[in-house]
Structure formats: structure tokens, C-alpha cells
Amino acid sequence: MKLLILFLAALGAASARIRGHTIKG
């Protein structure tokens, strides 16, 4: 279960980064 939470957290961070990059660019 911990691994799943960690994976979701990493995915959310990557998504936020991509979203911010898209808005900036």
C-alpha cells in the first residue's frame, strides 16, 4: 500500500510539473 501511495504522489508531482510547464510555455 505504501508503494502505491508513493507512486501516486510521484505521479501527481510529475503531472503538476507538466501542467506548470505547459502554462508557462
Describe this structure in words.
- One of its GO terms (molecular function) is hormone activity.
- This is Accessory gland protein 98AB.
- It comes from Drosophila melanogaster (Fruit fly).
- Helix content is 92%, strand content 0%.
- The chain is mainly α and 25 residues long.
What are the SSEs and their pairings?
Elements: H1 2-24
Our count of helices gives 1
Sketch the topology as an H/E string, one letter per element.
H
The chain-level mean pLDDT equals 87
Computed Rg: 11 Å
Largest sheet: none
Which features does this protein show?
25 residues; mainly alpha; 1 helix; rod-shaped
In short:
It is found in: Secreted. With 25 residues, this protein is mainly α.
